[in-house]
Amino acid sequence: MKKYILLMMLAACSFGAYAQQALWGGSKIVSPQVNDDKTVTFRLVAPNAREVKVTGDFLPTQKINTPFGEFDGPGTADLVQKDGVWEFTTTSPLAPELYSYTFLVDGLKITDPSNVHQIRDVASVTNVFLIDGGRADYYKTNDVPHGTVSKMWYQSPSLGMARRLTVYTPAGYETSGKSYPVFYLLHGMGGDENAWSELGRAAQILDNMIAQGKAEPMIVVMTNGNLAMQAAPGETSQGYIAPTMQLPKTMEGSFEQHFPEVVDFVDRNFRTIKQKSGRAIGGLSMGGFHSMHISKEYPDMFDYVGLFSAAITPDKSVKSPVYENLEAKLKAQFDKKPALYWIAIGNTDFLYQANAEYRKMLDGKGYKYTYYETPEGHIWKNWRIYLTEFVPLLFKK
Amino acid sequence: MKKYILLMMLAACSFGAYAQQALWGGSKIVSPQVNDDKTVTFRLVAPNAREVKVTGDFLPTQKINTPFGEFDGPGTADLVQKDGVWEFTTTSPLAPELYSYTFLVDGLKITDPSNVHQIRDVASVTNVFLIDGGRADYYKTNDVPHGTVSKMWYQSPSLGMARRLTVYTPAGYETSGKSYPVFYLLHGMGGDENAWSELGRAAQILDNMIAQGKAEPMIVVMTNGNLAMQAAPGETSQGYIAPTMQLPKTMEGSFEQHFPEVVDFVDRNFRTIKQKSGRAIGGLSMGGFHSMHISKEYPDMFDYVGLFSAAITPDKSVKSPVYENLEAKLKAQFDKKPALYWIAIGNTDFLYQANAEYRKMLDGKGYKYTYYETPEGHIWKNWRIYLTEFVPLLFKK
């Protein structure tokens, strides 16, 4: 019977008969291995490789020369081979964080075949691992009541298309009978409706902060801000297309103009608090730009506004009524005294100066806002931090 | 401004600064490329590689020697190098299907770095592509009304644990006010609550068949049948653990015994038809085994039963009240005349004989069932076919 069970197991996991090979092929290795002292060991079985490196955001950055100048790029470290197994252990413990990495095998970038846990960021797929402790504990799935994460579609009358979004409803939503406030959470350029729930760990952060009483139970709506797309690549009738950042309809006013249709859809499909005091909007980079413009276009819609590393970079060549009369519209918005206008950025972000100028303008007008600055730049690490800082400020009465 | 926008794009997609490299590194290649004649071209930039092969279920199988005997394994094909780019085009057009593949670079199995579209099957990650036409059009996201796919958690009182499940609600569910029948759809050994929605394309199949009037609008509930897990690997407080097939609590009665708690949760959280005529249960391999046992344990619960390549292989050493008195329980079930008892299997499936014996037993008792046989074996291709055959038979009054 044992042999039979094994055969069944081998066959039961067959998707084109791959897994069978995986089960009897090669030595069993673990990679990555988070050691007790929080150092991390990476391993790869590649007896024919001549050189194996690991690269990831857990390593110090290094300068990279590009056609566009010198940039901080990800660091690399060499794996050492013994009996066909390549290995590298970090020289010091890693701080709590969600990290990403890939291998470079004879120059070819590959994901770690021993680690099925991967995240896509635009056109790049990397492996991930998490060092727990500190703020990173918000990014973990813990044994707390879990909300529901739904992928659903709304019909946009003005665009004449169905569009996909991700909705987080807090634990207990289905049966509580209560109405909830709504936080609209927007991604950056090249991202989509999956970005905040995958790279941003939004569901874990909300679950944990609500369970600890640090955040109010709320609905979080994660839209797709690229109007040239109905949904993330692979989720539309275009099929398995390659992701790209070169999308035509991202920062030209259409998304901002159509946004009340999203709010209307959410208000019709969920038990929401249908007034300004029950609505927040925030986003990263392009999503911060969108949040800034949407909140001023509709000054009675959102009481809480969050700009995370916002791309406040008006391209004068883009013509849209949304981008006209900025000062008058901001005056109208701030005259109505939003409950919170929150600006966060990293001190090495390439958008730092643009944000400083925007804050200076707000200061000059006497508009009240809250400012939060972190080290480092335009990276998901910062956006997860901003989410954990922003969410506790919302919907406090 | 153009340069600035480009810099912003480079930075905006940074998850540890990887994507920047991806954007300016290497030549732009497309892989896989589905050609007009439905041949497919695979490409890999690997100037330092000595040998590159592609392996996948689109190639004829080949015999593999293993410690457990000779098996049909996936075929391979050689890519040919020119200027550092390796390439292979299939010699003939491929039939419509969802296919999977990986590369073998100097013997190392890797996913295609040019294709972000991947599916995990237990511990193996492979790339996917789809050739449309025929039945495969059900597996595509088409421009039809889309249902909602939710990841949510139920509390099991008997197990004292929260467990994750995937729920499909049909287009219009949120606002229709109607009650819907429910189809409980179970995975195989090593799978989890993500298997049917990812490998099985269940949401696409339901969207398309409902839109074409071939299936009734229904709720589909996809559970996790491994009671040693709360959820799929990476979705629990265990963190990013490696998937395994060696789970202790899969076919020993506990899952079957606790199943009414799932039905109770669904009936309390969704607008359901709360009676036998509004419930179906079906599953693949271990999920077929579970469906067989659950439906006979609770003969008033499900009017429709589907066994897809069912692992009807009683292990006499496993003791559970669920597995005792099989014949008496089946008699009780069939005396109540289920609306449909449906058995499907591939003619090369290693479970073919066990299913033939089970059918012979049912024949001997005069119990009515419907039988559907396909070529090939214990593979997702067959399970997607069975889903498209089974779903139109459900809840027809």
Quaternary organization: homodimer
* Poorly predicted sequence stretches spanning 5 or more consecutive residues of chain A: 1-27
**Helix segment count of chain A?**
10
Which percent bin holds the helix content of chain A? Answer: 10-25%
Strands of the widest sheet of chain A, in order across it, are 13-14-16-15-17-18-19-20
- Give the strand content of chain A: 25-35%
Number of strands of chain A: 20
Give the overall average pLDDT of chain A.
Answer: 91
Q: What is the alpha-carbon Rg of chain A in Å?
A: 23 Å
* Shape summary of chain A: globular
| H/E element sequence of chain A | HHEEEEEEEEEEEEEEHEHHEHEHEHEHEH
Chain pair sharing the greatest interface: A-B, 123 and 123 residues
Structural class from helices and strands of chain A?
alpha+beta
Distance between the termini of chain A: 64 Å
Biggest β-sheet of chain A, characterized? 8 strands, mixed
